[in-house]
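User: Modeling request: complex.
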Amino acid sequence: MKPARFDYVRAATLAEAHAVLAAEGSDARVIAGGQSLVPMLSMRLARPRVLVDIMRLPELAQIEEADGVIRVGAAVSQSELLDWPQLPARQPLLAAALPWVGHAQTRSRGTVCGSVAHADPSAEIPLVLVALGGGITLSARRRRRAVFADRFFQGAMSTDRRDEELIASASFPAARSGHGYAFREFGRRHGDFAIVACAAVVSRHSTRLAVGGVADRPVARDWGNIAGDALDDALNELAWDLDAREDMHATARFRRDLVRRLGRETIIEARRCLA
Amino acid sequence: MSAASHAWVGRSIERVEDAALVTGRGCYLDDLGLAPGTLHAAILRSPHAHAGIKAIRTAAAAAAPGVAALVTGADVARRTASLAAAVRAPIKSWPIAVDRVRYVGEPVAVAVAADRYLAEDALDLIEVDYELLPPVVDPRAAIDPEAPILHEGLGSNIASERSFRYGDPEAAFAAAAHKIGIDVHYPRNSCTPIETYGVLASYDPQEDAYDILANFQGPFSLHAVIARALKVPGNRLRLRTPPDSGGSFGVKQGVFPYLVLMGVAARMAGRPVKWIEDRLEHLTASVSATNRRIRLEAAVDADGRVRALAWDQIEDVGAHMRAPEPATLYRMHGNLTGAYDIRHVSVRNRVVVTNKTPTGLNRGFGGPQVYYALERLIERIARSLQLDPVEVIRRNLVPADRFPYRTATGGVLDSGNYQQALEQALRDGSLGALQARREKARSEGRLYGIGFAAVVEPSVSNMGYITTVLTPQERHRAGAKNGAQATATIALDPLGSVTAQIASVPQGQGHRTVLAQVVADALGLKPSDIRVVAEMDTGRDAWSIASGNYSSRFAAAVCGAAHLAAGRIKTRLARIAAPQLNVAVEEIEFVAGTARARGNPDNALPFARLAATSHWAPGTQPADLDHAIRETVFWTPGELTAPTDGDEINSSLCHGFIFDICGLEVDRTTGAVRIDRYVTMHDCGRILHPAMVAGQITGGFAQALGAALYEEYAYAPDGSFLAGTFADYLVPTAMEVPVPQILHLETPSPFTPLGAKGVGEGNSMSTPVCIANAVADALDLHDIDLPLTPEKLLAAIGPAEPLPANERQVVAAGVRAPALRGAGEVRVAASPEAVWQALLDADTLASIIPGCHDLEQVSATHFRAEVTLGVGPARGRYRADVRLTDLLPPSSATLTGRAVGGLGSAAGTGHVTLKSDGRGGTILAFNYTGEIAGKAAAIAGRLLDGAARIVIHQFFAALARRVGASPTPKWRRWLGSMRGGFGRRS
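Assistant: Request completed. Predicted assembly structure:
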């Protein structure tokens, strides 16, 4: 369990990071907290020729709020965001979901944008980003672009990022008045990959449920203010639409059951926050 | 001792081990300094459960930087003898695959290089050609006469079969009011120590001798197996252990084949070799407990009294029946009636080999399997006869006035009062309050259950029990085996201080602390006066085949031996002291660091001065004394006799008693189990160190909770191993483990010097079945197998799943779909004929196959390619082989492919249909199923379906782009290809 040989570049400037990515293409990989990438290197699942470390770039280390958006830079760790004093008030969904990301030890190194870049279908941060209709800012040597989360996540560990780009920041819309938020997750043990994770965003007229861990990416569904049998039917359709995966921890049927049950509980909890 | 109140034994003194361990100064195998020039080994392992090895090409690896040696099965077979097994059979067993792999993770080659990185780089360059064979995964399938055979020499997959009969079971069943039976399948699990295997091996060609340092835990009967395999006399194999161990729980017995393998590697490399097992290797290929299928039937009176048991066990030992297997099956043979007075027993034992990792020692060793069947059966009897389960247990317990009690199968239960322990547990564990909680929960519609388990915990194994697997005639031929030699040495140095040395190989339990207590008590000293040396060296120390750390033998046997050795030293010292103090030898007592005359504390000699006498002034001691410098005691209990000709076997010396109560709730939303309360009553005889006993019980409980709810060494139907990381093999953490209420009753063992019994394994035996019984009570379930996953329980709770409103393909509930499956559709801006042509054109395929480096057209419908496949950062290079069949040009075809690479192999079948869209374009629809084997399956099973989906969609998207953009047909070439293709089919 030792990685194959690679070069390590600790970028002193953002331009240097961009230059390495432009020169090396898919043979380069950005490393931030390394909580997913390093085990993959050790198991030789990943064999990049160059690692570009972006953790010393101050311009990527910011949490800023402007125009109703919380912008989290690529070098911000999950625990730094969790410890951001304004978080529970400014985005309660994110505050509710972050404690479910790994363990305290992995959150202290793992970054918010690293989780976005890794795009694990069970990951909480991509799920929240999709639920909130957030976005990702990508930067390369000569350009910057922003992508909505639901277009960015394309499948298991696959995103819209191009080889020469790095994720500069993730943008989470801040809480809006008249909206309720809730997050629920079921895993086998505390800190495990979610078998099903649900994030609900509701208002008096709308219901949005985003589900992680079931399809190959987080998926959001919008309804009106439905309840009772109509909500059950809608959740049942969603459960089937997600074409649940099978693995050793859960059958597709179990995942569908949890979408119906946890989904309902999450929506009801979010509506309670409205009152 | 003059005053028992001053005794150190029985007190929870601070552990001498802890200060170093909690400050990072433990000395584990991987911390040891290395001899100059030491090389590092890495092991290439089989991605397949069952395959012939057609070729191994190592030239490129041998030429890689830093590589000193490459070891394959042929090298090992040439230099060693087949590993000896408990049952003689005309088959060979090696520590590495020879010509054939029989489980995922079986070693195939070893690279020895200047460092571990280079060694692993070299593994990447080894090419192995496998010819896949059908695997056998389930033990019941293994006994099917039509099943593929793992070892031709056995003639079947049954490595051993024996039937036993005790009392008159047929008559008891014929006379019984009820015949109640149960079928259980005990899964594979393991105790997964945090420190993995490690070996440091060197070979001395001058003496043809091996010196091997390994975190091996014993039993040292395996020293003989290793020496024989290496083809040296026992005195040419020096086996040493490091000072500290990062845990074992039995598992580090299983390192022994690697001692042989690394011995050969060191010999071939001509330099010392170090190998540290990594976590993936450990989970995949170290050892595990056996999985077992059991049919157990009871002849039962109307009141729940059990008169007879009929056992039918199929034990799955994996691909090789390695020593000491089938010990897992026979360890419990004297205890097949558990805590109950049942006089009639029949047993049918079959041991089968399957394409899984070989099994070995694991905490509980045979007990979890036996008690899962027996205590589930007791619950079933209570349920069937509508009796209180506690009442059924009570009616069947061995009566308190019958100890020592000889079981029907030959076990001797040394001491106990099971009735008192049970009643005390019900009272102090507050069963009444628990029952009230259940009533309240149920009235609120919640799913609450209470379970029980009564268990006899055997300890100090009889080294002869394994021979019960042989017939009496075979035993007579082979010679008797029995006993359990425990070894301890007490030495006095010239300054009069005391050193104790034991052959017990502690694995973190605290042996040094307890030994110091025992010896301090014997000599009237403080524990801090005693230095205990616990690492082992077979080249220098006193040891025997039973040495090592297993079968909970430390407190009962090793402490007893130390107590006896200290007693002998004390007797000799008293003889030296008596003339100096002018009193009779019998009047000498050892108290508070002195030897003194009883009743006259002032007439005393300092202990250290007395203890130094034999070194400095042997002339002053009694002429016939010899010396008082060093005493070694070998102690073996007379009760551990060989099996009788009637196959009665006292398989263990001591028998503790456990009675557990569990209250739990099953969540209606998720199926998750929440333990509300767990009570565990233990009678482990005399308690030497209460805090360590609590630690053993708490730790055993945590591992047993894992076995009950979380852990499984799961295998796919093709034999792929699925739990290669701690994200898949779910060990409970502090978040998941409740604190059990521990209760005690002490009935000292009459058979051990200190009255102590083993205590480390009991909860591994009692807790899984107790939790299962509670779940059965909560959900009113008849059958239930471990682990009790939320998915299983939610399916049991119901109701049936609602179907979708619109029509779509629905996979039947409970049926696992293939590991990989998917379907899709792309629109191509070209005619079906053009698309068809592209699918059969090598140049087109080379440009659209994701990551294709090189494509070779073997025939019109057969392609080979070198591809780099993956998603995100996860990428690997593969050799792919694709064939097209069922060709119906230009409308449909079947693609069958295999890809083999460093991350394992993939096999799949896809079906493609082409339809004109009526506007000059084509609608290409595809579906596929597949399986992935090897490393990727073991560590990334959760993500494979999604990854495959991406790669396959990439392929068809590229096809659409390519064909849509370049509509120039290459008709001639296509027609030629097609003719060739059809010619072969007809």
